[in-house]
From TrEMBL:
It is an enzyme of class 3 (hydrolase). Binds 1 NAD(+) per subunit. It comes from Nitratireductor thuwali. Keywords: Carbohydrate metabolism, Glycosidase, Hydrolase, Manganese, Metal-binding, NAD, Plasmid. Belongs to the glycosyl hydrolase 4 family. GO terms for molecular function: galacturan 1,4-alpha-galacturonidase activity. This is Alpha-galacturonidase. Residues 209-433 form the Glycosyl hydrolase family 4 C-terminal domain. It comes from the Bacteria.
Length: 464
């Protein structure tokens, strides 16, 4: 990697470069940072979308705070990856229409899913179609830029980060997720209330993270040198039945309604296990039996996000992107809450940065087997990415978390090795699926595989 201090450009390959969410957010953060000199190569199976984002990236760079950024679109992944210092992966595994079947088919069998992209039947089948995609990307990285640092933003995070390492064991990859930020916001609010002034933001909250992606927990939350965990646990118990939001929900805001979260699942889990649940309620609810929360989502104040909303949101983003591409004024550039720019700068020789990421377990999470992808803190620096020892989950919670991690690891191996007969037992083992029993679960699995067959390798199309 080029030295950050000498201000040479960093070659960043963006796989999924036509993205209307993560790619443009990263462009804005680079422009607002004003120190990184970036040569970003955008690759997407939709080349026109990558070209549009390249044009948009140039406009964003010109509106930034100083250092230039170069944006180019590439029709071949090899050209985008050639000699890259950093690779970012944010792809949509299949289509939103395919994701709609991930939600709708299980619903016919009484299975409710609030997100459907990580665990449960939707997350499982999404992994089946996305693991081969990530395997191809990993092979291309090994061929074109084996020394690059690789950030995966695509869900299911644990399975896909594990895929990168299974295909290319020498890869320097991490999975990036912003869900823990939700807890950090609450802790910052509590610290400000305690101080009697707005003195802290979520960036001032240092947390010790344990768990797996979207089922993360925190046993230390330090603000201004003071551990606020007990304050948080007390607050969670007090608001366990009522919930809490920093601001009231706007009933006219469809996005707020579709992504509704009153933190009641977080507070309930904290009260049950004596440790702070960190991810958003919609994700947390899918890791435990449906009777805990999903059957009572209105009672627990969270939404089941409909895919048709995601489709409307996609269409609106396309409309806005087309207007910007036609010359409409750029909206004001805001710094996002994502950590990627700080991580890249640290790897390139800037100030070290500690944050929570997904990596194969090398002892950072006690009680979990070596190699299983877990989410804990890691230190980013010019020396690379060093996972930090986080400790161990409470025993009762570990008994819930560990089977998910083991199932995700086994799923990756079964898909990569084309062992379709091993897939259904793993599918049936998920706590949302198990209550169906083998016969109904087998019927559901067959229907879901058929619905996503166009994205599956031949060896898996007859699974189930």
């Amino acid at each position: 990697m080029h030295d950050f201090e000498d201000q040479k450009s960093l070659a960043v390959a963006y796989i999924g470069g036509g993205s209307l969410n993560w790619a443009t957010k990263l462009m804005g953060d680079i422009a607002q940072d004003g120190t990184l000199v970036v040569d970003m190569r955008l690759y997407d199976i939709d080349f026109a979308a990558a070209e549009r984002n390249a044009r948009l990236g140039r406009r964003i760079a010109e509106a930034g705070r100083g250092k230039p950024a170069r944006y180019t679109a590439h029709e071949r992944i090899e050209d985008a990856l050639d000699g890259a210092d950093v690779v970012v992966i944010s792809i949509l595994p299949g289509t939103l229409e395919t994701m709609a079947s991930d939600i709708a088919l299980p619903e016919r069998y009484g299975i409710r899913q609030s997100v459907g992209d990580t665990v449960g039947p939707g997350g499982f089948v999404r992994a089946m179609r996305s693991i081969p995609m990530l395997a191809e990307i990993a092979q291309s990285i090994r061929a074109c830029c084996p020394d690059a640092y690789v950030c995966n933003l695509t869900n299911p995070m644990s399975a896909l980060t594990g895929t990168l390492y299974a295909v290319f064991p020498g890869i320097k990859a991490w999975g990036e997720c912003h869900e823990v930020t939700k807890l950090r916001h609450i802790v910052a609010w509590l610290a400000n209330r305690k101080a009697g002034s707005v003195s802290y933001s979520f960036r001032d909250v240092e947390v010790n993270v344990l768990g797996i992606n979207h089922f993360t927990f925190v046993d230390r939350a330090v603000v201004g040198g003071v551990d606020m965990l007990q304050d948080y646990l007390d607050f969670a118990r007090t608001h366990r039945a009522s919930g809490w939001r920093a601001t009231p929900i706007d009933p006219d805001n469809e996005q707020e309604r579709c992504f509704l979260d009153h933190n009641m699942v977080k507070f309930d889990l904290a009260s049950r296990f004596g440790i702070a649940a960190a991810a958003g309620d919609r994700h947390l609810a899918e890791f435990v039996p449906q009777t805990w929360y999903l059957d009572r989502n209105e009672e627990f104040g969270f939404g089941l996000t409909p895919v048709d909303y995601r489709m409307r949101e996609r269409d609106e983003k396309r409309r806005v992107a087309a207007e910007l591409d036609a010359g409409a004024p750029l909206p004001p550039l805001d710094v996002s809450e994502e950590a990627l720019v700080a991580e890249i700068k640290a790897l390139a020789g800037g100030a070290p940065h500690v944050t929570n990421v997904n990596l194969p377990n090398r002892g950072q999470l006690s009680g979990f087997a070596e190699g299983i992808v877990v989410e804990t803190n890691a230190r980013f620096s010019a020396g690379g990415i060093q996972p930090l020892h986080s400790g161990r989950l409470p025993e009762a919670l570990e008994l819930i978390v560990k089977p998910h991690a083991e199932r995700q690891t086994a799923l990756v191996a079964a898909v990569l090795e084309g062992r379709r007969d091993d897939l259904f037992p793993l599918f049936l083992g998920d706590p949302l699926v198990a209550p169906l029993g083998p016969d109904k679960a087998q019927d559901l699995f067959g229907q879901m595989v058929a619905a996503t067959a166009e994205f599956l390798p031949e060896a898996l199309k007859r699974a189930g």
